[in-house]
Amino acid sequence: MDVFDKDKRSKIMRSVRGENTGPELRVRKILHAAGYRFRLHRKDLPGSPDIFLPKHRIAVLVHGCFWHGHACRRAKLPETRTGFWALKISKNIERDKAVVSALAAQGIRSVVLWQCEISPDAVLNALSELLDSA
């Protein structure tokens, strides 16, 4: 059972941001401190990647664990309306796969960073692996 009443839960869910989220801001700070320059939310690219490094043609997708269905404790489905949420999350996962494929079709490599795994080392290692594989 939810700890909040229906109106309070509705207010909380409406306030969830799509851009400039906390995890996204942390990743941007890490990349900027490491000397990377980037563009934000490029609407002309598939999926409007959170961060785009034009010099390297890399899209950085910062995924919230709940919204994108990560296999961690933060991604636990709510106890109410489980059918709705399971369908919503599965559609998000399918959309994420389509976005990565569409970016690849344009010659843009992607790196997915999960909310629960964001740290300076994790972010820079993921980016380094992608840059080294080029």
Protein model, in words:
The chain is an alpha+beta fold. It has a single domain, classed as Endonuclease, Chain A, CATH 3.40.960.10. The chain has helices at 6-14, 22-33, 65-68, 82-105, 120-132, and strands at 39-40, 51-53, 58-63, 109-114. The protein has a four-stranded mixed beta sheet, with helices on both faces. The longest helix has 24 residues, at 82-105.
Q: What is the compact description of this entry?
A:
Helices cover 46% and strands 13% of the residues. It is of the alpha+beta class.
**Cα shape:** globular
What is the name of the CATH topology? Answer: Endonuclease, Chain A
- Spatial strand arrangement across the major sheet: 1-2-3-4
- Spatial gap, N to C terminus: 49 Å
The residue fraction in helices comes out at 40-55%
CATH architecture: 3-Layer(aba) Sandwich
What is the N-to-C succession of helices and strands? Answer: HHEEEHHEH
What is the CATH class designation? Alpha Beta
Topology:
Layout: H1 6-14, H2 22-33, E1 39-40, E2 51-53, E3 58-63, H3 65-68, H4 82-105, E4 109-114, H5 120-132
Parallel strand pairs: 3-4
Antiparallel strand pairs: 1-2, 2-3
Kindly list the characteristics that best describe this protein.
134 residues, alpha+beta, Endonuclease, Chain A, 4-stranded mixed β-sheet, 5 helices, 4 strands, 13% strand, globular
